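Co-fold these.
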Amino acid sequence: MTSALERAKFEYALRLADSNLILAQRLTAWCGHGPALEEDMATANVGLDLLGQARLWYGYAVELEGRGRTEDDLAYLRDAPAWRNLLIVEQPNGNYGDTIARQFLYDTWHQLLVAGLARSRDVRMAEIAVKSEKEVAYHVRRSADMMIRLGDGTDQSRTIMQAALARLWPFTGEMFAEDEVDLLLIESGVIPAAGTLADSWRHDVEQVLERATLAVPRSGWMQSGGKSGRHTEHLGHLLTEMQFLQRAYPGAQW
Amino acid sequence: MVSGLAPARLEAHSGERPEPVLPPGIEPDADALEIWRALATVADPELPMLSILDLGIVRSVERQLDGDNAWQVTITPTYSGCPAIDAITEAIHAALASIGARCRTRSILSPAWTTDWMSPGGRARLVQAGIAAPGSSPVGLVAAGSARVNASALAGDARRRVVACPRCGSLRTTLLSQFGSTACKALHRCDDCLEPFDEFKQH
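Predicted complex below.
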């Protein structure tokens, strides 16, 4: 890995891998605990898709890095400050409404992002994005449908969804924040400009929330830091569980 | 988990030698055709009524001229997180070993797999097994055992798409969940015969 562009691509691939893996880990915690069998299966299947996509991004990241690290090294042998995922994905599952709202906000962003990345000048990134695009289309269809069903449901379900949106909203700004890695890749035609994604995201989210009879939270303070390794306290707890085996039995093979 | 499974072989095809369904544009010589025939016996672990050729996940078979004369089998995953891919890879090695051929497998992402590559025979066997085939449309009524597929009717929004019941052929069906027993399926219910059923999603 020599050029600044390659280093930026590595960093970016790592961010997407980490966001997908952490969200997959969160979702699979619902397996066997979902509120209905259909939802249990849907949540686990979305988690499985995201895990598969994370592996594709890790696979590219370790190639770009070229230091002999493997995807498992990245998943199991890094402590919280080395993780580059968005803060929203590490937020606790909470009640099922929290999980659905987190998924909807993420899926809507993820769909727009992979659609943009499908036109990347980086062939490998475009390939991974095209592969992901079909899967994410089902994710967003399902989470938007659940937002509408729960928002436009009972008074209680609407109250729960509105509270979930209020809790998660401050973590959405980070999706569209641009740092030097993003700027270099945007300039090089590798990734789409965050500004155009932000407008489309807001439009898509507002349309669904309107049908869900939910109010769009007022924009205010936006929390960021995940992309540079400054995480909320929740990530460390998640990692202790996800990385337990490799921490307790270093080098253990399945 | 999957690595401990015995290699899956297509039961429906045992005892006969079906002509393998090849991707368009592939014209194998006699030796390569034997490899394709062996691959036609490898079943998908989650959909054992389909061979990996019915699914369209084998993209090419090439003889390697260097070294050990192994065959290179290029496959593409259906879904990026598909847990069956390891079992499929092992089954490919076993199927080729059974005809004395060595092979290496290679996985590619592009072009991305699509259900358009699923064979007509595979679609019919899905419906026979009670799973609506991708592309079941209101135009081509899908009744048990007689799958007719009209992909062009699918161009519209999936929400408005009618998925015919694979058991009774009724077009009055309700989508219960975008995700069924596996990531590649959605769950529906027939409003006439009242049976729930899986649909292999258009992808």
